[in-house]
Design brief:
The protein is an alpha/beta fold. The chain is built from 14 helices and twelve strands.
């Protein structure tokens, strides 16, 4: 099947579309995996007005029913237009679409509400808009089934990581740095039950927020601003005391932990120490790098069966040279040298979109899509809901 995966992450900067050819495994053994061939990847920035609406709705203290309904519909139209543009450019006939949607709220751990205690999540983007425009079924709303199976609804990219990168001789770390940073750790010869995956903390989220506030730019291109700053150690140390970093995996993060409130407090701490805006950007970049390295050292390194570990980085953060340099500084002392996923045949910004293409394919074939060892679920679960054209 030719499947388009659609991803828009917590950075809320736009839409990635990956078109993937997926074929079933040739054998029926437990270790057999489907084969994936990436045909195309296209990225589309959100229109400015849509991005403002998304950011305003994320973790909002108050909004209106009309606003949320309109945003759900508008996102569906944007996703449909993105797939149409990708198809026009690449001339590929689709069979299926998998759409993650735009996360507005993700509460991975149970909390009390209206007399009951539960966890919950919500991704917007009307799938009927996509199905109607493209003329093929759409699988969406992937996270709830895992959460009702006892998981945290994330990370879901772990299935793709295992299918593409599990290796009999080398350990693999698949590090994604989007708005939030997360990784999948696959020891050599690992079965899916031995996979470790969780969110490490902020990825580009704090860097982007500060760059927009201080320089009126959407992000720190190539890490150029951070390269001219110095890391403010007291502010970094204070940020690393956030309760999230003390949680045991499985764990997930989002704007609920590292959104506008955290960014404002982080910036205030930096400005107490230095008036130079580049120093704040450098410190935010260091927060991402150090929280990733600490997560690897504390929770993953003891489980890797060999020092031969490939540390493969994807997501927008892989293009931030200063971040990659800081990350390499921490990880090389632990026996890892990070490299971009492009060196392994997968463009850095295509992986998450390709993951939701695979998850849609799994759902279409009535196969589970979660990796319980990664999400904390009690059982495998078939993910998502199908909207027919």
């Amino acid at each position: 099947m030719n499947v388009a995966g659609i991803m828009s992450g917590t950075s809320a900067d736009g839409i990635d579309v990956a078109i993937v050819r997926i074929a079933p495994a040739r054998t029926r053994t437990k270790s057999a995996r489907p084969t994936l061939t990436l045909f195309a990847h296209e990225g589309f920035a959100y229109p400015a007005a849509l991005r403002r609406a998304v950011l305003a709705a994320m973790n909002a203290q108050s909004t209106s029913t009309a606003e949320l309904a309109r945003l759900n519909w508008r996102l569906g139209l944007a996703y449909a237009e993105a797939v149409q543009s990708a198809l026009k450019k690449n001339r590929i006939k689709l069979d299926l679409v998998g759409c993650h949607g735009q996360t507005l709220y993700h509460q991975a751990r149970p909390a009390a509400y209206a007399g009951r205690t539960f966890s919950c999540t919500w991704q917007l983007g009307e799938p009927a808009a996509i199905a109607s425009a493209i003329g093929v079924p759409v699988v969406s709303n992937f996270r709830p089934a895992d959460m009702f199976a006892g998981g945290q609804g994330a990370p879901l990219v772990s299935l793709l990581d295992y299918v593409l990168f599990a290796d009999p001789k080398r350990g693999r770390i698949l590090q994604n740095i989007g708005g939030i940073a997360n990784f999948t750790a696959i020891p050599a010869r690992a079965t899916p039950a031995a996979v470790i995956a969780f969110d490490t903390g902020p990825g580009n989220m704090i860097i982007d927020a500060l760059t927009q506030t201080l320089f009126n730019k959407p992000f720190d291109r190539n890490g150029a601003l951070a390269a001219h700053g110095r890391v403010l150690a007291p502010a970094l140390k204070a940020a690393l005391r956030h309760p999230f970093f003390r949680l045991q995996p499985p764990r997930t993060a989002g704007r609920e932990q590292f959104g506008r409130e955290f960014a404002a407090a982080f910036l205030a701490n930096c400005q107490k120490i230095s008036p130079r805006p580049e120093d704040a950007i450098a410190t935010a970049t260091a927060l991402t790098a150090e929280s990733i390295a600490r997560s690897y050292k504390q929770f993953v390194m003891p489980h890797m069966r060999t020092r031969a570990v490939d540390y493969i980085v994807s997501g927008g953060g892989a293009r931030n040279r200063t971040l990659m340099s800081m990350l390499a500084h921490h990880l090389e002392a632990l026996g890892c040298h990070p490299s971009a996923s492009a060196a392994f045949g997968l463009p850095v910004e295509a992986k998450e979109a390709a993951a939701f293409a695979l998850l849609a394919w799994q759902t279409w074939h009535h196969l589970p899509g979660n990796v319980p060892a990664a999400t904390g679920a009690a059982r495998p679960a078939i993910l998502g809901q199908v909207t027919y054209a």
